[in-house]
Amino acid sequence: MATAPSKVVVLMAFMAAALSSVSMAAGPAGLQHGFYNSSCPKAEDTVRNVVQGMIRNDPTMGAAFVRLFFHDCLVRGCDASILLDPTTSKPETEKTTIPLRGYDAVNKIKDAVEAVCPGVVSCADILAFAARDSTCASGGFTFHMPSGRLDGFQSIADEVFQGIPSPRFSSKNFLIASPPRASTLRT
Ligand SMILES: *[C@@H]1O[C@H](CO)[C@@H](O)[C@H](O)[C@H]1NC(C)=O
């Protein structure tokens, strides 16, 4: 088993990768710092306030948000496909394949963001902001999380465990092994 400190290092490594990543799900302008500066200036503050309150109530929520973002990004980029519900024609999705926590919490964050600017902020960016704010609220660093991700409409259950990095990896091996669909590292 990895020790607690090395888990933190791996999560931090993942957040660093996300920070420098170019998501394949990005809009035409690519990812930008402050993508919602003019369309929804309160977006990031709203996510941060809700996430901080949730972590104060239940400190384990931080890990839940980072884990949701991690699994979302591993399948076809950070496109919120992890949030898609199964349907009668498609009973198997990422969500049904791996048990994760935090879906209700993400809905609450989404509701808070919709209340300040309806229909503007993607769920993919909400997951990214929530993961960033979780690392900070859990004692890590904060950083400008690039935004402008688009939400995907496909959730591929079979891809959930493909190329997933081992929890035993060192942070260096983790970054080497992280598939390009999750992050493109710039050195
Ligand atoms: C948003 O505002 C910040 C701070 O002024 C700035 O650094 C960033 O480039 C802006 N982003 C966009 C997309 O306008």
Automatic annotation (TrEMBL):
Residues 1-25 form the signal peptide. Keywords: Calcium, Disulfide bond, Glycoprotein, Heme, Hydrogen peroxide, Iron, Metal-binding, Oxidoreductase, Peroxidase, Secreted, Signal. Its EC number is 1.11.1.7. GO terms for molecular function: heme binding; lactoperoxidase activity; metal ion binding. GO terms for biological process: hydrogen peroxide catabolic process; response to oxidative stress. Disulfide bonds join 40-117, 73-78. Residues 30-170 form the Plant heme peroxidase family profile domain. The keyword DNA damage does not apply. Binds 2 calcium ions per subunit. Ca(2+) binds at residues 72, 75, 77, 79, 81, 94. The record marks 67 as: Transition state stabilizer. It is an enzyme of class 1 (oxidoreductase). It comes from Triticum turgidum subsp. durum (Durum wheat). One of its GO terms (cellular component) is extracellular region. The active site is at 71 (proton acceptor). Belongs to the peroxidase family. The keyword Ubl conjugation does not apply. PROSITE patterns: PEROXIDASE_2 (PS00436), PEROXIDASE_4 (PS50873). Pfam families: peroxidase. Removal of H(2)O(2), oxidation of toxic reductants, biosynthesis and degradation of lignin, suberization, auxin catabolism, response to environmental stresses such as wounding, pathogen attack and oxidative stress. These functions might be dependent on each isozyme/isoform in each plant tissue. It is found in: Secreted. It catalyses: 2 a phenolic donor + H2O2 = 2 a phenolic radical donor + 2 H2O. Its cofactor is Ca(2+); heme b. Substrate binds at residue 165. This is peroxidase. Its main location: secreted.
